[in-house]
TrEMBL record:
<dbReference type="Pfam" id="PF01565">
    <property type="entry name" value="FAD_binding_4"/>
</dbReference>
<dbReference type="InterPro" id="IPR016167">
    <property type="entry name" value="FAD-bd_PCMH_sub1"/>
</dbReference>
<keyword id="KW-0274">FAD</keyword>
<keyword id="KW-0547">Nucleotide-binding</keyword>
<keyword id="KW-0285">Flavoprotein</keyword>
<keyword id="KW-0964">Secreted</keyword>
<dbReference type="InterPro" id="IPR012951">
    <property type="entry name" value="BBE"/>
</dbReference>
<dbReference type="Pfam" id="PF08031">
    <property type="entry name" value="BBE"/>
</dbReference>
<comment type="similarity">
    <text>Belongs to the oxygen-dependent FAD-linked oxidoreductase family.</text>
</comment>
<dbReference type="InterPro" id="IPR006094">
    <property type="entry name" value="Oxid_FAD_bind_N"/>
</dbReference>
<keyword id="KW-1015">Disulfide bond</keyword>
<keyword id="KW-0732">Signal</keyword>
<feature type="signal peptide">
    <location>
        <begin position="1"/>
        <end position="21"/>
    </location>
</feature>
<dbReference type="InterPro" id="IPR036318">
    <property type="entry name" value="FAD-bd_PCMH-like_sf"/>
</dbReference>
<keyword id="KW-0560">Oxidoreductase</keyword>
<protein>
    <recommendedName>
        <fullName>FAD-binding PCMH-type domain-containing protein</fullName>
    </recommendedName>
</protein>
<feature type="domain" description="FAD-binding PCMH-type">
    <location>
        <begin position="70"/>
        <end position="244"/>
    </location>
</feature>
Amino acid sequence: MEALISLLLVTMSSIFLSVSGSNLESFLQCLPQHVQPSNPISDVIFTQNHSNFQSVLNAYIKNRKFLIASTPKPLAILTAKHESHVQATVICAKQAGLELRIRSGGHDYDGLSYISTVPFVILDMFNLRSIDIDIANETAWVQAGATLGELYFKIANTSKVHAFPAGVCHSLGVGGHISGGGYGNLLRKYGISVDNVIDAQLVDVKGRILNRESMGEDLFWAIRGGGGASFGVILAWKIKLVAVPEKVTLFKVDKTLAQGATDVLYKWQYVAPKLPEELFIRVMILVPKEEKTVSPNDCHEMSWGQSTVFFLDSSQNVTSIDVLLQRPTEAKISFKAKSDYVKNVIPREGLEEIWKKMIDNENMFMQWNPYGGRMSEISESETAFPHRAGNLFLIQYYESWPEEGINATDLYTNKLRDFYDSMAPYVSSNPRNTYLNYRDLDIGISSNNQTSLKDAEVYGTKYFNGNFKKLVEVKTRFDPDNFFKNEQSIPPGNLN
């Protein structure tokens, strides 16, 4: 019986590879038929036998645990250099029966932008990175493959009194970051990224390039916070620039438990969401490797552009913002992340229990990001991003480890899961909300690579609350055959 089963598996594997090869051949033959000779596509196609395939694949994998040989690989990577390359990839992947994964920066925490368990291709957007700023109208068009660092650099070198509300990490790809919401340190003053988007370009399932007018307000609503990869390929965003002073002030104060950190954080929960909206005070909680004391020079004045560097790494003496232009290097660490929303103040006794659980886990940290201000003024249904009034702060949990191998991954991932479970009494419930851009497959996935409504409701309500129903309705109209999908995508309503 064992020999028969083994033979059956080998035979099935051979059929799978044969089908994949046939699909890939059909895909590759289709591509040139959908681009003009003036924009050849041949030099942006990397199949597995291409000498640069592995380096192109690894360049935008930000989590080292996915660099191992057993991680499923795409049949091909398309590094589009022209809009027609994106259109051709969508049309031909659908025609050839291949799944499409879309990558703009590679920060998808659980790798959904570059991993699949069925035959698939990656559409990598990193070459589409132009930024066109119109200071007179205080707007900018930003292509999906640009990084936040490149956007911040361009804004800072164009104007000393403009900014854009988005994330802290400079290597985030604009396309995916904004489509998931876009959370950063200007949110209390101006909301998140999607609150400052006024137009978009998207390639739909038919290969058409749509803007806000041609896609309609429902689809434009859905891609602002609902995850663009469920509905099409984001080509570019038109964003609204916001006003900032020529000089902003940043400070960093370290407190240990012996110095009263528990009392400070207890009071922070009451104060931080109610401060003037110009103030954003993030808390970073970690087990220190050495004792720290309060710096005598806590406050630093600098331009907004310099602040984007300082906020990410306050140990730097910021004299230049050129670091914003650095593209990614190979991932150095493995990690797992999760998130929670907090609606009620965590009591002192709860904080003390949290510290006890953290003491034995030096590889984990938490970020607590305050709400209030503009975030409490915007309706939950204004965009697909629902987490607005009623939240005191957002928690990000982040566990990292230097060791390689599946044993280390299991060990540290389970540590984080245990800690996350212990936080249940202190965070939102029914549903226990989480943030789409902190992608977490632990909270629910689709089965058999075919997203169903039943499966999607599990994670969909946690990410989107009541907006999930409307997202399904939009998906049903614009992608009824569910071409744009992943393990946590929005399904059309015709799937059971």
